[in-house]
Design a protein that fits this description.
59 residues, mainly alpha
Length: 59
């Protein structure tokens, strides 16, 4: 029974984690939205300005 559970667990892990071990030749999918460093810094500055304006207005 224990061997069967271990085999089943290994099989499920192989299905679920199969994508994790895959090699990517390009940037990872979750890094695509960041773009280059300058664009990232600009977005952060714009976000801070918007939040600061909203806080000053009392929203």
């Amino acid at each position: 029974m224990r061997k069967l559970i271990k085999k089943l667990n290994k099989w499920i892990k192989g299905i679920v984690l199969g994508e994790v071990d895959k090699e990517f030749d390009k940037p990872l999918p979750y890094h695509k939205k960041f773009g280059n460093k300058k664009a990232q810094i600009e977005r952060i500055k714009q976000k801070r300005d918007i939040e600061q304006n909203q806080m000053n207005r009392g929203i």
